[in-house]
Amino acid sequence: MENLRLNVSLLRRRVPNLTTAAKSVGLRPATVSNLCTGKIPVGRSEVRTLVALASLAECSLDELIIRGENVEMIETKIKALDLFAPLAKGGTIGLVARQKMGQLVLLSELFFRLKKESFTTILLMPEGDYPELKDVTINTDIIVHSIEEAYEKIAEKGSISEIVFAADRRHVLTGEIFELQERIEAINIASITTFLVDLTGEAADEDLPYGPLETIWQFDADLTARHKFPAVNPIYSTSSVLEGAHLDQTHLTIQQRAQKLLRRYRELRSLVNAGGMERIPASEIQTFKRGERLEAYLTQPFYVAEAYTGKKGESVRLHETLQDVRKILDGSADSLAIEELNYIGQLIEK
């Protein structure tokens, strides 16, 4: 039962406006979103929920539920992403953020990194003037201005290289992205991984802003305000990669331990903000300090921001991230100052 996942691609094609459709049959959009990304395992979901989704997609349960298939991960070497919400290769990734929370910097950084890994990067420019996209275009191989042009370029380049494609949410609302994905599935291309962004910030107020997703990166206002970048929420961001039955158990165990620590740290931090460290029980001080160190470690200098930050970009392999996070969880970094963990690459112990 653990090696089951929803056929997200089918849901995207059959039920473009999944938020409204889910509500119409009594389903919570958040529940549907969590099923799509794997945050709620299919094997633990209610049968009525699966039946309702199958009814919406006009398919059988056998078509809705995929057995024995794992979602492959693209290792970004960005610590917070690879640990908490890995990039699903060939999937659709939604960036949920308000304006000026760093989503476009992250997208630009991903394009920069994936180009180095021989991916072809394609950006569908939105209508209107968006100067904030300038940094993304610098790291884009091909810029297109319509869905039809996007299809032509993906069909042309997709036969010889893997594609990463980015588009604005407007194309989701019109249904054009789903039509494009359906057309792409009918042709023989290596792989296309789709990033969806929202330049207006409206997606942050919706339960299912992009429809079914394989990976969702939820940006965090508190991290942004404290300049902890990438400001991706480690609790609410998730990926169907984590649902795979053959995922490295070490990764899953460390990810769950890290989430548990950060969840409690955030609760304790609200107490500290209200009344200082004396508000924390003595038994929780160690938890607070380790959470503080883990949060600092998960910040990372980006290559595309070197000119602005003065810090050299850093890449950290997943196995190195897991080793470092385990050390922090187990107390090996307790003697390190927070300043020694902020915006570093791999952990270097004294």
From TrEMBL:
Keywords: ATP synthesis, ATP-binding, CF(1), Ion transport, Membrane, Nucleotide-binding, Translocase, Transport
Membrane-spanning segments: none
GO cellular component: proton-transporting ATP synthase complex
Main location: membrane
SUPFAM superfamilies associated with the record: C-terminal domain of alpha and beta subunits of F1 ATP synthase, P-loop containing nucleoside triphosphate hydrolases
Gene3D superfamilies per record: Bovine Mitochondrial F1-atpase, Atp Synthase Beta Chain, Chain D, domain 3, P-loop containing nucleotide triphosphate hydrolases
Location in or out of the cell: Membrane
Gene Ontology MF annotations: ATP binding; proton-transporting ATP synthase activity, rotational mechanism
Domain of life: Bacteria
PROSITE patterns on file: ATPASE_ALPHA_BETA
Keyword ATP-binding: yes
Family to which the UniProt record says this protein belongs: Belongs to the ATPase alpha/beta chains family.
UniProt-recorded name of the protein: F0F1 ATP synthase subunit beta
Organism from which the protein derives: Cytobacillus dafuensis
